[in-house]
Amino acid sequence: xxxxxxxxxxxxxxxxxxxxxxxxxxxxxxxxxxxxxxxxxxxxxxxxxxxxxxxxxxxxxxxxxxxxxxxxxxxxxxxxxxxxxxxxxxxxxxxxxxxxxxxxxxxxxxxxxxxxxxxxxxxxxxxxxxxxxxxxxxxxxxxxxxxxxxxxxxxxxxxxxxxxxxxxxxxxxxxxxxxxxxxxxxxxxxxxxxxxxxxxxxxxxxxxxxxxxxxxxxxxxxxxxxxxxxxxxxxxxxxxxxxxxxxxxxxxxxx
Amino acid sequence: xxxxxxxxxxxxxxxxxxxxxxxxxxxxxxxxxxxxxxxxxxxxxxxxxxxxxxxxxxxxxxxxxxxxxxxxxxxxxxxxxxxxxxxxxxxxxxxxxxxxxxxxxxxxxxxxxxxxxxxxxxxxxxxxxxxxxxxxxxxxxxxxxxxxxxxxxxxxxxxxxxxxxxxxxxxxxxxxxxxxxxxxxxxxxxxxxxxxxxxxxxxxxxxxxxxxxxxxxxxxxxxxxxxxxxxxxxxxxxxxxxxxxxxxxxxxxxxxxxxxxxxxxxxxxxxxxxxxxxxxxxxxxxxxxxxxxxxxxxxxxxxxxxxxxxxxxxxxxxxxxxxxxxxxxxxxxxx
Amino acid sequence: xxxxxxxxxxxxxxxxxxxxxxxxxxxxxxxxxxxxxxxxxxxxxxxxxxxxxxxxxxxxxxxxxxxxxxxxxxxxxxxxxxxxxxxxxxxxxxxxxxxxxxxxxxxxxxxxxxxxxxxxxxxxxxxxxxxxxxxxxxxxxxxxxxxxxxxxxxxxxxxxxxxxxxxxxxxxxxxxxxxxxxxxxxxxxxxxxxxxxxxxxxxxxxxxxxxxxxxxxxxxxxxxxxxxxxxxxxxxxxxxxxxxxxxxxxxxxxxxxxxxxxxxxxxxxxxxxxxxxxxxxxxxxxxxxxxxxxxxxxxxxxxxxxxxxxxxxxxxxxxxxxxxxxxxxxxxx
Lengths: 255, 335, 333
Fold this sequence. Notes:
- The structure holds 3 protein chains of 3 kinds.
- Chain A is α/β, with parallel strands linked by helices.
- Chain A has a single domain (about 1-255), classed as Rossmann fold, CATH 3.40.50.300.
- Chain A has 9 helices and 12 strands.
- In chain A, the strands form 3 sheets. Chain A has a 6-stranded mixed beta sheet with strand order 6-7-8-3-9-10, with helices on both faces.
- The N and C termini of chain A lie far apart (about 40 Å).
- In chain B, about 75% of the residues lie in helices and about 0% in strands.
- In chain B, helix 3 (about 50-85) runs antiparallel to helix 11 (about 230-255), helix 3 crosses helix 12 (about 260-270) and helix 4 (about 95-110) crosses helix 5 (about 115-135).
- Chain C has a 4-stranded parallel beta sheet with strand order 4-3-7-8, with helices on one face. A 4-stranded parallel beta sheet of chain C has the order 11-9-13-14.
- In chain C, strand 5 and strand 6 form a beta hairpin.
- In chain C, helix 8 runs parallel beside helix 13 and helix 9 (about 205-215) packs across helix 13.
- Chain C is globular, with a radius of gyration of 24 Å.
- Classes of the chains: A alpha/beta, B mainly alpha, C alpha/beta.
- The interface between B and C is medium-sized, with 31 and 30 residues.
């Protein structure tokens, strides 16, 4: 169980960007931090993942305080999946996934057989084993995102953090990637925290949501329960109608 | 197929170095050369007091070894620094080493003649990197960009100092300084080989063991941190060991450009960017390349051309070729 | 009465004519310098700036006609240094170096001509543009050297003295030639002349080469048609010279070669026939003495009865007007 308590953050000389945010995330499910652009969700994400270390408040995992851990200790608990990107060198997909084992490999060592096995397993689980020997720069955006997820998986950390993982993927890839993430959360019993700005995707894939706006937490709870038409109107200043179809909730903007 | 290429690159210095022993101004029959080498290992033929022995053992062998060692130092650290700075256009002199060494040389020839040139060159090369690091830290946070910019500043500073010294000394000393800076193995001997072996090994061996981490670091600082890598500390280690190796190499051979830039590229084109292979193969390819360049330098004409000229003449056209035909696959996103 | 006026006129005419004869003849001298430039100089030159070949000053005794010298004059010319130590009034203003002239200092001295070596053609062009008469020199042969001395003679109105200097040089060259002319080709010694670095050697073009040939030795570097070149140690071993000379201003000496195992098998090193020459420029009358020095070291058996210092002293006194021993104090070797 990941607990986030009273997080406050302000960038140098600027006003407070995050004001007292508290929420928790359970194992084996996806918790989405949802909010419009500029709501502070990326800042929140960076505080949790350790990229912005000077926040006020506490982050706890399974009762243990995370705040002051160094990189190596943090990496044992959190794995971070950034948005897909192109690196300066054209590493093979397998090499990228293998990098997830960095925390377990000494500074003067190279990956062992064990590490290779784990990387292979991660690739297989995510379903991209066939891409193993292809340069990372030559696959599609969606496939790259999956590679980064496989890498996070290889890291064998109990919490996986994803920052806008499907932002610039096409329609099909968005669904494929999010499906995979859901599988991972359930199958490996990982605490998944994901930031999204599209409420429909949150509805479709996320069990639990934390709604953030203007640096404050607006709501927290099961997605199906807290995502109402009023909330969306308040959050995005858009009028919508929510329909139920096949057990899924669809949010339709009223144009 | 790839495995064969890897194997060939790996053992290339052995047969290229071997071949280089047979070339030189003084014609010696290959049989005699082999006899001499056997004799010096097993002491059978007692050829110790012949000029041929002196040439093979005292002139060619140390020269080939020195070229090999310097080639290893420059190429290996070139690959390492390209990984650290996530940029394939970096060469090992970027942090000010070459200007620092040039200053050490100039100040020895100009004023401090009682200190051996090598020692001064080494000291100032290391000092230059130290200065670069300190200046980069000025804003508290050392970033890739701040390191590169400081490197440029420190290089410019030392280069200016060298110019002042060049201006102040008489024309003959000036010529000596200019010649040293051009880079050459013409005065290679066993004492230089010993120094190079120690300094370069102390630098390169740790780099070899740390090489896989470069994969992670080259993905980006934030990503590497999230994967559990202490980027600041490891970068410092990489730079520190690289500096040691390159400062030693520069102190014994002068400034030889292009090798540290070109060889890692060539190797990446054959085996890919995975540093697990790239680092050791850059080292061996660098040794071979340097030995070939130096052998050309001393055998092409009657004179001994400074080897830096040969590497520069091959460097520029090579880069044009790279940019024209191979940019995408080699440089990834920088295409 | 008419007679007395006529006589007065005659006397005036006479005085006038005599006056004309006695007046110094100013003429123009046209030189073609090393760069092929035609330079017209008004002679005799009263204020010259020279930044190389300083020995010509005491040799032609033109102290009063020199307005400026280079910064390195005392470093590189022990003769100048000796004279200036004896008579500090002789010291001349400095205008920078041959490779780096201070234009303002030159202009301030208002020279009739600047004589400079052709190291940097741009400098010569620059001086020209500023309206200064410049002569570029770079004697590459013994003949060039003679022409240079004669040119100086004409420039400074000291032709007779210049001729005498050359005569004295020739005396020494004759002395050498007489004793070495009969050495047959097979017995001629092979020589290598080392410069700034032990692997930089003097080649075909240059006064040094001519001097080596004059003493009937073989300049091994002569097969390369340049002024100087870098070669590998192997090449020198291949050549296997009998004698090795080291340039007087080099930063190393014989012991460097003797202690270096790479040079061990060269005849000259084995037989300890490596000699560092006195640090005199060979663009000067002392080239003759350098030749004698080299001849004595190369063919000692032919010069057993020759006392170098005695001959040098005689030469110094006759050409420069100073004792050899007085100058030797400032030699750096």
